[in-house]
Write a structure and sequence with these properties.
The chain is an alpha/beta fold. The protein is built from 10 helices and 4 strands. Helix 7 links the parallel strand 3 and strand 4.
Length: 183
């Protein structure tokens, strides 16, 4: 069965990679879900600000796990570049907020017809304007739980940690209640 690829944006990666190990390029579930990043995430992680806040990103285990990217052909690369240009033009004129990397993630999502995990509300708004598939981090965690790739104790621990450090994904409480109430 072919993999069901899912892209993970920078914030979702930083929220999950330390706890769900290895996070990327590890198929799970009957649908062979497999999480990927884009090479541009590695460029973002070279920022001293991010390296200070997330010191662990430079450790071999994490750096090696971030070396797997979606395989795409030349025709897809061209389509992604054209879609990116269109999205970026839209951002520049109608929806300031998403970054160039956000627009690139969405261009991949549109052209490869795969979802992006993000809690970024500007990115989600851009995705909505172009019918790109996005899901919040907690929805990914619910999918992982349903596949036996993680458990509720781990998910609750992550949510408690995010609350404690003040790095709450957008809609954390509503998403948690919607996805995990009654468990």
């Amino acid at each position: 069965m072919p993999q069901s690829k899912i892209l993970v944006d920078t914030n979702a990666y930083l929220r999950l990679a330390k706890t769900i190990r290895p996070l990327l390029f590890m198929p799970f579930g009957d649908n062979e879900y497999c999480l990927y990043i884009l090479p541009e995430l590695n460029e973002e992680l070279k920022s001293h600000k991010l390296q200070n806040a997330f010191y662990w990103v430079t450790e071999d285990e994490f750096a090696e796990n971030r070396q797997h990217f979606p395989n795409i052909g030349q025709k897809q690369k061209k389509a992604i570049a054209q879609t990116f240009d269109y999205l970026w033009d839209y951002v520049q004129t109608d929806l300031p907020g998403p970054s160039r990397v956000d627009a690139l993630y969405l261009a991949y999502a549109i052209e490869l017809d795969i979802p992006v995990v993000t809690d970024d509300q500007d990115m989600t708004a851009l995705a909505g304007a172009f019918d790109a598939k996005v899901m919040p981090t907690l929805e990914l965690l619910k999918m992982m739980q349903d596949c036996g790739h993680t458990d509720l104790k781990t998910i609750k621990g992550l949510c408690d940690y995010w609350r404690h450090i003040g790095d709450r994904p957008a809609n954390l409480e509503a998403d948690f209640k919607r996805l995990f109430s009654g468990q």
